[in-house]
Structure formats: C-alpha cells, structure tokens
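Quick one: sequence plus NAP SMILES, need structure tokens.
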Amino acid sequence: MVLPPSVTKITEEGRNPRFRIKDTMSETATATAPAPAASGHTSKYTRNAPYTSRVLVNQRLTGPESEKETIHIEMELEDGMHYTPGDAVGIIPTNRIEAVEGVLKALNYTGDERVLDHYKNEISFEEALTRHLAIGKLARGAVNQYAKLCGENVPAGLKELLGADNKAKAEEYTWGREFVDLITEFPGIITAPQQLFNVLQRLTPRMYSIASSIAMHPNQVHTVIRVIRYNTHGAERQGVCSGNMAERAPVGGTMPVFLHENNAFRLPENTDAPVIMIGPGTGIAPFRAFLEERAVTGQKGKNWVIFGEQRSVSDFLYKDEFEEWQQSGVLNLFHTAFSRDQQKKVYVQDRMTENAAELYKWLEEGAYFYVCGDASRMAKDVETALLDAIAKGQDSTPEAAQEYLTAMKKAKRYQRDVY
Ligand SMILES: Cc1cc2nc3c(=O)[nH]c(=O)nc-3n(C[C@H](O)[C@H](O)[C@H](O)COP(=O)(O)OP(=O)(O)OC[C@H]3O[C@@H](n4cnc5c(N)ncnc54)[C@H](O)[C@@H]3O)c2cc1C
Ligand SMILES: NC(=O)c1ccc[n+]([C@@H]2O[C@H](COP(=O)([O-])OP(=O)(O)OC[C@H]3O[C@@H](n4cnc5c(N)ncnc54)[C@H](OP(=O)(O)O)[C@@H]3O)[C@@H](O)[C@H]2O)c1
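Reply:
Sure thing.
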C-alpha cells in the first residue's frame, strides 16, 4: 500500500520493545466474535457500591525520556459487568499515606481518634483521611468552611481569601496547594477531628475513558492514565487517583471501580460508516476501544485516526498496536502529530488541515467525526480546523460550514468526549 506523505509508516527499526503491551487479546476473541449488546449495563455495581477489581496489568507507556508518565491499566471485571466503547470507568482512589500523615502531624492527632463518616458509621480518623475526605488539591470551599470555624476571630491572612470580592485571590492561593498547606499556614483552628467532615469535600471517584472492547477482552476493562505530578510551594505533589494508580495499584492488587455509561459517544449503528477519530494524548483511549470493537466484530466501515503527543521517541502510545491495525487493514488512514519533534509545534488540527480534501471526502461519504482529550484548547482548535475543511471542501462561507456541522451534530456524526 502506498501511504500519503504525512501518514506515519512505522518501520521494524521504529519498534521499541519498551512500549510493547502484553497481548491480552482473549483466546476466545476472534474476528467473527458476536457484537455485544448496543448499550446498557447489567451491573449491580455503582459509585456507592463499587466492584473490587483486580489489577491485571499496570504498565508505563511513555519512555524514560518523556516529560509525561502515562500508564496502561487492565482490570478484571465480574461476569455480567458490561460496557460499550465510549463508556468510562470510575475508579475510587485513596489518599496516599504521606498526605494522611502530613495532615495528622499538622493537626497533632494520632489517627486513632474516632469519627463518624458521612453515613454515621464510626471509623478511625486515619481511615477518614485515607478514604473519605478530599485532602488533596485545596478547594476554595474548604478555605471558606475552615474560616467559619474561627467565628469572629478569622486570622487576617485567611480573611483576605474570603468573599466574592476575593475570589481571584483565593483561586491564586488554592492553586498548587493542598489542605495540609492551609492548616499549616493558619494553625490552631481545628479543635476536633470530626470538624473536617464540615470543612472538606468527599473524596470522589475519577472517571477514565475506557480503552478496550469487552468483545475482545472478556471480563476486562482497560484505561490510559496520565499521572499528574508537580512541585509547588516547596513540595512534591501528585494527583490523588492517577498517583494511586501509578504507585499503589500493583498487578494482583485491587481497586474499587464502577462502569459509567456514555451514550453521547458511540460508534455508528451503521457498521459500514467511516469513522474519523481525533485523539491526542490520553484522548486516544476510546479510539483504541473503537478500533478493537470494529476489528473483533468484523465491521466494514473505514477508520482514520489522528494521534498527537509530544515526541515520537518517548510518547508514541500504542505504537505497535497502530502498526498492527494498519497492517491488518482495520486502520485505513493514520496520522501523527508529534508537537515537539521539530522547532515549530505541530498539532492534530494541522494534520486535519493538511488533509482537508480527504477529510471532506470522508464526511461526504457519511463519516462520523470523534474528538477526545483536552477540552480547554484542543477541542476548540479541532472544531475550527473541521469547519475550515468543510468550508474549503464545499467552497462555501463559514456560515454554511457551520450549518453543515450543525446537521452533522443532529445526525450524531460529530461527537466529543472532552475533559
Ligand atoms: C469523562 C472523563 C474521561 C476522562 N478520561 C481520562 C483518561 O482517559 N485518562 C486520563 O488520564 N484522565 C482522564 N480524565 C481525567 C481524570 O478523571 C482525572 O481528572 C485525572 O486523572 C486527575 O485526577 P487525579 O485524582 O489524579 O488528580 P487530582 O487530585 O484531581 O488533581 C488534579 C488537579 O491538580 C491540579 N494540578 C494539576 N497539575 C498541576 C500543576 N502542574 N500545578 C498545580 N496544580 C496542578 C489541578 O487543579 C488539577 O485539576 C477524564 C475525565 C473525565 C471527566
Ligand atoms: N484533570 C486533570 O488534571 C487531568 C489529568 C490528566 C489529563 N488531563 C487532561 O487530559 C487531556 C489530555 O492530556 P494528555 O497529557 O494526555 O495530553 P495533552 O496535554 O492533550 O497533550 C497531547 C498533545 O496535544 C498537544 N496540544 C497542546 N495544545 C494543543 C492544542 N491546542 N491543540 C491540539 N493539540 C494540542 C500537546 O502538545 P504540547 O504539549 O507540545 O503543546 C501534545 O502533543 C488534557 O486536557 C489534560 O490537561 C487532565
């Protein structure tokens, strides 16, 4: 097959065993495996009553030179737990021991003190801090509630962070800080461990786009997680859940999980329809699920993926799998945009622009267009590039392109899963 110039052709030398993901394709999964039910969960497990899932694989996808730590996770599911590509999995994290100990030390408690949890069950203060209270990134609400404990005697520095007039200042203060920083800077306010239930929010589950097809991996769910680590105000910090998955979710260990349906992000019902998938970074997750699903259920529709990351040598997530999908014909077009491989940044939308004529041709053939990943900038820039490609393709005005896109949205041919 002759590939267009900007299509990445992965050579044998380009293969890097470091990135090799254990082939977990079930022996029972074949190209003729039946399609799973279109949607609907039969699971009895919820965020309040999660399933205790065993971790089967926990593997770093990015190379040691990478600025990012992105991990591939495979977890086991019970018979009857079902999901559809496009869904998410909720993971219920715990706070790391260092964070719990930091709070105990700052408040001068041992952790053995007894408190009542949100359901009025008696537990130790240490368990409350580990499993129930959001002691990670500091919320503005927690600052306000903390100040309320002072009555009339709010310390001057804390007072400056309160009220609508001081919103910007409070946001600046909370950025990069955790609860421990607040109680260290303004000590002596907590007089009983139970008060923390009024100050702090609950520790909530985090959602992750599912990166697998259950038809290909029965009783499994896969995810791709970017681990959040940063150094602020003189301390090493990490995201609660991504840090939990990176450091405290070893193979054989367990994590509480539940499945979360997302009917707004679905493969076309018409299995012959072409599909265009724009997935930079961890945004690639649902498209791995889509490709697996289309491959294992023998769907005939064409597939085009545009993947972006920082550097090809260290950040090419699922490189081997993309190569295999290209070779097997599941993936008809594949472009990469490695932003930092050259002087000038190149993003997924640049590949769309370079291939605008082909993009419009696919749309005219009835292609479904999907975007996943960063909501703040990428999703908007991709939409702009899509509108430009449409306007160019039909030689029309921006308004006419917008109408075309609106019609696509109505027909569910433009779907986004951005966060
Ligand atoms: C539908 C959906 C699907 C998602 N899919 C995925 C996915 O497939 N993969 C994935 O990795 N994530 C995904 N996410 C994001 C994921 O849910 C979590 O939000 C993410 O993993 C962070 O959670 P955490 O507990 O590790 O970090 P938290 O403890 O929640 O901390 C994150 C916060 O840390 C702060 N922070 C981060 N970096 C810095 C910094 N440099 N300096 C100062 N503060 C900083 C910010 O306030 C940020 O919001 C998805 C989210 C949604 C809603
Ligand atoms: N809630 C959280 O704290 C949390 C946790 C994990 C992930 N996320 C979010 O999840 C998304 C994915 O994160 P990720 O690290 O996997 O990937 P990412 O940050 O989206 O980066 C993937 C690629 O997209 C590029 N990029 C940057 N700006 C872009 C733009 N405007 N348009 C198109 N591409 C752009 C990046 O280039 P450069 O980096 O070279 O500019 C990189 O090459 C991001 O929104 C990230 O913030 C959030």
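Residues 1-40 have pLDDT under 50 and may be disordered. The first helix runs from residue 97 to 107.
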